[in-house]
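General statements about sequence and structure are easier to judge against a single worked case. For one protein, we set the task of working out the structure tokens from the amino acid sequence alone. The sequence in question and its structure tokens are set out directly beneath this paragraph.
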Amino acid sequence: MRSSPRAQATLAGVAIAALAAVAVTAARAASVFDFDVWMRAIDKRSVDVQKNIAAGKTADATADAQELARLYGLMTDYFVADGHSPDAVEMSRAGKAQADAIAPALAAHDVEAAASSALALARSCNDCHDAHKPFQ
């Protein structure tokens, strides 16, 4: 069965509209639900990185630190895009900087500096939670 040119044009239009909707959805800013997932992942990873540093598991601690930095980067983008207060943006940037400091410290065999950054990162969570946690 052959479709008419008009039916083909209509089908093509619907397909283009559907693809555009998918592209817009994929490119949208993160939601508060995404943010909540990131915070939970950060909570777990901040504990893991401290344990791995203490246990001398450098590769695991480095992977944890890299994931923490990625998550803090996502949070920074979320806070900027969502128009949150400047302190929320600064707290997430500071968290990323602390996470970014862990891997180089481990690579330099400076376990004390890595542990200090990891501990500071974990302690800073509460400051941000008190003011910006999406679900209390």
